[in-house]
Write a structure and sequence with these properties.
174 residues; mainly alpha; 74% helix
Amino acid sequence: MANAAAKKSAAAREAAAKTYLPIISVLDIIYLILRLSKFDTLTKMEGFFTVLLLILSCVSYMFILDAHANNSSVSKKGEPLAAGASLDLLGLVVLVQYGSCLISSKFYWLLLLIPSYGGWKLYRTFSSGLSGFAGVKPQNQIAESNLEPMGGDVADEAADKRKRRAERRRQKWS
């Protein structure tokens, strides 16, 4: 069983590599051609950001491959895309690459979205377990507060319905 899962994961990784490697390679090569065509005006800061953007492009590619390998099941309609955050990072990198090269070097400021997004994800991770942290109510308190205005009969009926549904699930899986 473990060998089959490893083969499935490797196949998903290979399929993702066949899809994303040509796209990312072409985007990076065109960016380098554009950047090197303006070599005479290239400053140290722009050289640093050029290298940083190419590294971020490679990192997002590796994260995309890992996400496809870990999420090797066939995605169905309505499910989130595998490697969604990595694709967002890749989109931001491409926007900054071409925006800074073709329009203005002020596009480098968009790179500040990466640590702020990471901070937001950390906040959401740790605040979900804290009761009332920063004005956020846990989901069970929201559900209870939504049931209160309904009255006792409706709330009891909803609770009975949930119990019956849970019992059917237990019978189905046992």
